[in-house]
């Protein structure tokens, strides 16, 4: 299935969860936050949250900022 | 009391002059932003030289974010993290960003920033107040970055913000405090801490903020983009301490004409 991750079209397995996706995209960050279709997905819900075709995800990590 | 006894006594008084936000106590009245920092080594040197205990960070898409070691550096320095909502243009974006930051950083504290456009980076008052009300209702400790409007400052405090953070001038401009009168009025009008945030260019700007009655100063670019960030961080620390002491000490009034400090009485006729 195809979903959008951080603005890019991404191909994922049909049964993929948020946890599966974060595992491939976290880039060494421990403190990651995920928004699915405009809502926060709490870390505790990542393994149980299945993704659907057309979903839009934002995977965010800390950076320097004022 | 001799001078040599007075100085340690004053130093003790300073240590007993804590700065509190939402029940948390800080001995440093300087908050540091990490934006614009050229390297992690520089960041660590500046944080340590500044003596800060509260440091702002941001959230971005994972591909565009800093290396994970930035947080290792900040953790090692023992500072508390204050996530911001930098770049948000609407209350909706800011509220979602704050919730994501709470998830990522595990803190309900947020520096709420809602900007009106990318040229001035000035706060959008309407969206800001809306976001502040929503976040306070959701249990956040909101430190609101705002304009130097005393009325808006009061509205934010009334909405339950834990601190009000007026700008001295636009973010990164280094123009200092353009309207000192407004900052002093805003300080008078609220019971929560006031943190001068944005526009600081050099040490005298930070000292002025404290002399005007601000409880603390938040700055980033003035240190991170200085030629020598570590040295500027120390300068800011001393300026904040000096400005605070001057405020507590009570400055002399401004006079149009001179007032002799040496008595004219007993002046010989020569």
UniProtKB/TrEMBL annotation, chain A:
InterPro entries xref list: Beta-grasp_dom_sf, Mopterin_synth/thiamin_S_b, Thi_S, ThiS/MoaD-like
Domain of life: Bacteria
PANTHER family per the UniProt record, alphabetical: SULFUR CARRIER PROTEIN THIS
NCBIfam families: thiS (TIGR01683)
Record-given protein name: Sulfur carrier protein
Automatic annotation (TrEMBL), chain B:
Stored InterPro entries: Aldolase_TIM (IPR013785), Thiazole_synthase_ThiG (IPR033983), ThiG (IPR008867)
Domain Thiazole synthase ThiG: residue ranges: 21-262
Residues forming the catalytic site: 111 (schiff-base intermediate with dxp)
EC number: 2.8.1.10
Chief localization: cytoplasm
Gene Ontology BP annotations: thiamine diphosphate biosynthetic process
Pathways involved: Cofactor biosynthesis; thiamine diphosphate biosynthesis
A single GO molecular function term of this UniProt record: thiazole synthase activity
Residues that, per the record, bind 1-deoxy-D-xylulose 5-phosphate: 172, 198-199, 220-221
Catalytic activity: [ThiS sulfur-carrier protein]-C-terminal-Gly-aminoethanethioate + 2-iminoacetate + 1-deoxy-D-xylulose 5-phosphate = [ThiS sulfur-carrier protein]-C-terminal Gly-Gly + 2-[(2R,5Z)-2-carboxy-4-methylthiazol-5(2H)-ylidene]ethyl phosphate + 2 H2O + H(+)
Pfam family of the protein (one): ThiG
Superkingdom to which the source organism belongs: Bacteria
Locations listed in the record: Cytoplasm
Coiled coil: none
GO CC entries: cytoplasm
UniProt keyword annotations, A-Z: Cytoplasm, Schiff base, Thiamine biosynthesis, Transferase
Family: Belongs to the ThiG family.
Self-association and partners: Homotetramer. Forms heterodimers with either ThiH or ThiS.
Function description: Catalyzes the rearrangement of 1-deoxy-D-xylulose 5-phosphate (DXP) to produce the thiazole phosphate moiety of thiamine. Sulfur is provided by the thiocarboxylate moiety of the carrier protein ThiS. In vitro, sulfur can be provided by H(2)S.
Protein name: Thiazole synthase
Species per Swiss-Prot/TrEMBL record: Geodermatophilus obscurus
Top-level taxonomy: Bacteria, Bacillati, Actinomycetota, Actinomycetes, Geodermatophilales
């Amino acid at each position: 299935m195809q979903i959008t991750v951080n603005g890019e079209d991404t191909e994922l397995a049909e049964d993929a969860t948020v946890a599966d996706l974060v595992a491939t995209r976290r880039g060494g960050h421990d403190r990651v936050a995920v928004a699915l279709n405009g809502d926060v997905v709490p870390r505790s819900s990542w393994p149980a949250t299945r993704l659907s075709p057309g979903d839009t995800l934002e995977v965010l990590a800390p950076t320097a900022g004022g | 009391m001799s001078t040599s006894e007075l100085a340690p006594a004053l130093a003790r008084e300073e240590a007993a002059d804590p700065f509190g936000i939402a029940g948390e106590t800080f001995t440093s009245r300087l908050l540091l932003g990490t934006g614009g920092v050229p390297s992690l080594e520089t960041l660590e040197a500046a944080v340590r030289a500044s003596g800060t205990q509260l440091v702002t960070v941001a959230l971005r898409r994972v591909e565009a974010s800093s290396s994970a070691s930035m947080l290792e550096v900040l953790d090692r320095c023992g500072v508390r993290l204050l996530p911001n909502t930098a770049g948000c243009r609407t209350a909706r974006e800011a509220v979602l960003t704050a919730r994501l930051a709470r998830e990522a950083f595990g803190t309900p504290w947020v520096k709420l920033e809602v900007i009106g456009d990318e040229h001035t980076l000035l706060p959008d008052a309407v969206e800001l107040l809306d976001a502040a009300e929503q976040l306070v209702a959701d249990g956040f400790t909101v430190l609101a970055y705002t304009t130097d409007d005393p009325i808006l400052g009061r509205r934010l405090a009334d909405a339950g913000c834990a601190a009000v953070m007026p700008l001295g001038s636009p973010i990164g401009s280094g123009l200092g405090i353009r309207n000192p009168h407004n900052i002093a009025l805003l300080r008078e009008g609220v019971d929560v801490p006031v943190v001068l945030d944005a526009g600081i260019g050099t040490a005298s700007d930070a000292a002025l903020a404290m002399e005007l009655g601000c409880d603390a100063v938040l700055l980033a670019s003035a240190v991170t983009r200085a030629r020598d960030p570590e040295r500027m961080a120390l300068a800011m620390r001393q300026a904040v301490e000096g400005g605070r002491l001057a405020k507590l000490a009570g400055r002399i009034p401004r006079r149009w004409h001179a007032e002799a400090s040496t008595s004219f009485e007993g002046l010989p006729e020569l």
